[in-house]
Amino acid sequence: MKTKHSEVERYKEEIYHCFRCGFCRELVLGGAYRICPIREELGFETTYARGRIGVARALLEGRIEYTDPLVERIYSCLGCYNCKAHCPTKVDTPSVVRSQREEIYQEGFRKLKALDEIDSNIEIHKNPYGFSQKRRNQWAEGLDLPARGELLYFPGCATVYDRPEIAQSLVRILKKAGLEVATLGEEEWCCGIPELWNGNLALAKLLMEENGRRLEAAGAKTILTSCPDCYNVFHHHYPGLLGKQPFRVVHITELLLDLLNEGRIVFQKEIKKRVTYHDPCRLGREAGIFEPPREILKRIPGIELVEMKRNRQHSWCCGGGGVVNLVYPKLSIKIAKDRVEEAKETGAEMLVTCCPLCYRQFDNRLWEREMDLQELIVLAATAMGIETINLTPSP
Amino acid sequence: MYQSLVEIFGRERVSREDFELLCYSRDAGSLPPQSPEYVVIPNSKEEIRRLLSLAKREKKPVIVRGAGSSMCGAPIPLVDSSIMMDLTRMRRIVSLNEDSMSILVEAGITWTEVIEYLEKRGWELGLEGPWSAPSATIGGAIAVAAISMGAARYGGLGSQILGLEVILPDGEMIRTGSGANPANLMVARDCNGIDMAGLFIGSHGTLGVITEVALKIYPLHEMEDYFAFSFSELNDAIEALHGLAKYRIPYDTRMFVIPLPEEIGGRAGIVFMLKGRKTEVLELSRLGLDLMKAAKGKEIPDFGKTYYQGRFTARAEAFGKAGPGWLEVAGFIPIKRYPEVAAPILEYFAARKTEIERLGVKWSLGGLLETNAVNIPMALFCNESNSEAWKKIINYLWDLTELMFGLGVSPYWIGHLNPYWKGKLGNFYQVYERLKKSLDPDGILNPGLL
Question: How close does chain A come to B179, measured CA to CA in Å?
Answer without folding.
Answer: 29
